[in-house]
Each structure stands twice: as structure tokens, then as C-alpha cells.
Amino acid sequence: MKRVAKPIKDSRTFRSRCACVCLAALAVVGFFLNPAYAQTDDEVIAVDSSLVLANVYITDRNGQPVSGLDQKLFTILEDGVPQKIDVFSAESTPFAAVILIDTSGSMEFRISNARSAAIKFLDGLRGEDFAAVASFDNEVRVLREFEATPYLPDVFFDLKADGMTSLNDAVVAAAKMLSKRPEKRRAIIVISDGADNSSKYSQKKALKAVLDVGASVYTVDMSPKDSPPQEKAIMQDALKSFAEKTGGTFVATPGGAEMRHAFEAIVSELGNQYTIGYQPASAKEDGKFHSIEVRVARGGLKIRTREGYIAPKAKK
């Protein structure tokens, strides 16, 4: 019997399914953040803890990851103000990831490539890493819940391209899927040809949902290499924005060995990050964006982390 993908039509349906079925797939951040689903349109995911986490990836001049740096070398700043580091981890630890596969009509001739990309990522998982898989077009469907194996259900191999592109809704759903996982390192892998044209949520709210759960977004552009430059720029804009603002990376139209290397790099990066946590010295429930900057007292390093976070709004 084939396993049937489960659609997530809106946040209310999603919450109901979480409450009634208690899927392990719809779960994250438990140890340091304790998000609960939002009850208003203003908050997609409400965060109860004021502790801010930043996963940091550091490379040398040759692009090789730098590990083993001592905490005393690090400074983290919020809005330009140094903060006291309360949590620091430099160990290679497990991660949780959600792979989002675009199955909208524009992906008609690229579904097989997107499927191959997802398989390459799953094949690279270490034994302690967990990944879920979902597809999105007009709605979001969970194809595989969180597992630590490369296993994929039959429905994954029957994917068809049809409908519109609900990219933002898919990103929000992935953030909710991650919102109770125990792993401190979390990622969303988006395999898509770009622009959203069907979502309930705005890109701003989708970005906030990702930042609330401390995830990094890695985007893989599946748009045709021969697309007109202006059209391609529009399609890539959202993918680049999600990656840049969350400390992830954007991969432009990979193929063959390039795609394999790209996914190997993502898995390696997720396992070799530094995790830094702090309580903001002047925490405000102002609903505004607060920048994060990480500095390391050692030359020749490239530091990548999320640009910041959006504070929750004070309850009236």
C-alpha cells in the first residue's frame, strides 16, 4: 500500500493535526527556545523564551571550515551592543532539517532533478541527523516525517508538477515542523525555481517564522540556466533573501557533480557550526528587527550567521 502525503492547508489545520496525531515530524527547539503556535495573525510562531540563539559557520581564506575556536575569542553584538554569551557550543552535533520540494506547474520539466537533489541530501545524512520531506504547490504536503535514514515513501517518486507556488506557506510549515525538535541546529532546504505566487503568508512573516525557530535556510535554484536575466533575477530574489537573512546559502542552478558537492557542503556545514546563545541586555517586545553580529578575535576568517531576529510584540 502506498503512503499518502498529508496536506497542510493552513495553520489551523496544521495545529489541529499536531495536537491530535502528535506526529514526531511536527516538532523543535525545545531545549533553548520553547515556541508555541501563534494565536494571532501578527505572530506566526510565538516564542516564550527571550534567549536568542545564533548558529555560526566560520571558514578560512581557502573556504575550509574552522573548528575548535575558544569561546573567549567570540563577541556577539545585538544592534551594535556587545552581549553576554550564555550558551556556547563548538561541538559537531546532530541537526534537524526539512526539505521542501517545489511541485508547482513551472517545475514540470525539473521534478526529476528536484527529486535527485533531495535524495542526494538524504544520502549525506549522518546517523544522528533527522530530516523530513514536504512538497508544495497550492498547498503543502508532508511526504516523509522526521527520520534518520534515507528512506523515502512511494509517494515521493510519484510527484507531479501542477498548480501555483506557495513558497512562503511552505517555509512557515517547515518552521512549524521544526518548532519542537530537540536539536539546536536546524535547517530548511528549499528546492525551487523561485517566485511565490500563491501564499497566505507574506515573505516577511515566513522569514520571521524561520528566525523564531533559529533555522538556517539553504536554497537551491532550479530555474532554467537559459532564462532571461530579468526573469531569472525575479525568480532568484526570494531564494537569495531567505538564505542571506538566515545564515544559509543560495546555490544557483546546480547540476550533476555540482549538485552533489553542494549538498555535501550543506550537510558538512550544519554539523560544523558554533552555537551561541544570549539574553538580550535590553530585551524589548517591540515587534522590530534586531541585528546580530558575531566577531572573532582572529584574522583571515569569514563568519556567517543570521542577520538578526524579529522580537515578539507585547501582548495587549
Identify the notable features of this structure and list them briefly.
seven-stranded mixed sheet, alpha+beta, 2 domains, 17 strands, 6 helices, single chain, Rossmann fold, 316 residues
Gyration radius from CA atoms, angstroms: 19 Å
CATH superfamily of the largest domain: von Willebrand factor, type A domain
Q: What number of domains?
A: 2
Number of helices: 6
Ranges where pLDDT stays below 50 over 5 or more residues in a row are 9-42
CATH class of the largest domain, named Alpha Beta
Based on DSSP secondary structure assignment, what is the total number of beta strands?
A: 17
- The strands making up the biggest β-sheet line up spatially as 1-10-9-8-11-12-13
Oligomeric state as shown = single chain
Q: Note the run of SSEs as H and E.
A: EHEEEEEEEHEEHEHEHEHEEEE
**If you consult CATH, what is the topology of the largest domain?**
Rossmann fold
Largest beta-sheet characterization: 7 strands, mixed
Percentage beta strand? 25-35%
Net shape: globular
In CATH, the architecture of the largest domain is 3-Layer(aba) Sandwich
Termini separation comes to 51 Å
| Whole-number mean pLDDT | 84
What class would the helix/strand composition place it in? alpha+beta
Helical content band: 25-40%
Describe the model:
Helices cover 25% and strands 28% of the residues. With 316 residues, the protein is an alpha+beta fold. The protein folds into two domains: 6-27 and 93-271, von Willebrand factor, type A domain (Rossmann fold, 3-Layer(aba) Sandwich); 51-91 and 273-310, no CATH class. The strands form four sheets. A seven-stranded mixed sheet has the order 1-10-9-8-11-12-13, with helices on both faces. Strands 7-14-4-16 form a four-stranded antiparallel sheet, with no helix packed on it. Strands 6-5-15-17 form a four-stranded antiparallel sheet. Helix 3 (167-178) packs parallel to helix 4 and helix 4 runs parallel beside helix 5.
